[in-house]
Amino acid sequence: MSNITPPPLVDNSRGLPGMKEQKWIHEGLITESLPNGMFRVRLDNEDLILGYVSGRIRRSFIRILPGDRVKIEVSRYDSTRGRIIYRLRNKDSTD
């Protein structure tokens, strides 16, 4: 039996082992629903970006509609797209 070790796990696109890409987390308002789980999101700093639903939200069947407030994770390298990671509860609803 030979002593072969697997390669280290790579967590980012540049191939450096063990390093994850730093992301910014913003809050925003869904303004428009687009096809394939994409949404137009207006951030609190008035930027308009394209957001897609994360796998955890998709797997939990959480519905996101225009008018909902969400937390969105934005890459430092591409600030025009982000991943929706949490739907915030409305203050006036009984969710």
Automatic annotation (TrEMBL):
Keyword Chloroplast recorded: yes
CDD domains: S1_IF1
SUPFAM superfamilies associated with the record: Nucleic acid-binding proteins (SSF50249)
Membrane-crossing segments per the record: none
Coiled-coil segments on the chain, per record: none
GO molecular function, one term: rRNA binding
InterPro entries: NA-bd_OB-fold, RNA-binding_domain_S1_IF1, S1_domain, TIF_IF1
SUBUNIT field: Component of the 30S ribosomal translation pre-initiation complex which assembles on the 30S ribosome in the order IF-2 and IF-3, IF-1 and N-formylmethionyl-tRNA(fMet); mRNA recruitment can occur at any time during PIC assembly.
Protein name: Translation initiation factor IF-1, chloroplastic
Source organism per UniProt: Aconitum reclinatum
